[in-house]
Write a structure and sequence with these properties.
0% helix, mainly beta, 74 residues, 39% strand, SH3 type barrels
Length: 74
């Protein structure tokens, strides 16, 4: 089931981005929806909240993380 990606969603990378030293599974936050949802600006921060990378990424490079069980309707 593919969930839509929204502003402020917590997401994880589904691919390695070697040129940015980011690896599949790293967690970031969507801070901007670009091109009507064709891309998303995602910030990656350390444990103290300092941003170490901010990138525009395609939806297929991301998965939305959930902290509660999902229902059939999302």
């Amino acid at each position: 089931m593919t969930q839509p990606i929204n502003l402020l969603d917590v997401v994880a990378l589904t691919v390695d981005l070697l040129q940015y030293n980011l690896w599949r599974g790293q967690v970031g936050t969507v801070v901007e929806v670009l091109a009507n949802g064709a891309a998303f600006e995602v910030e990656f921060s350390d444990r103290e909240g300092r941003t170490y990378e901010s990138l525009g990424l395609r939806p297929d490079q991301l998965m939305v993380l959930h902290y509660e069980p999902l229902t059939a309707t999302g």
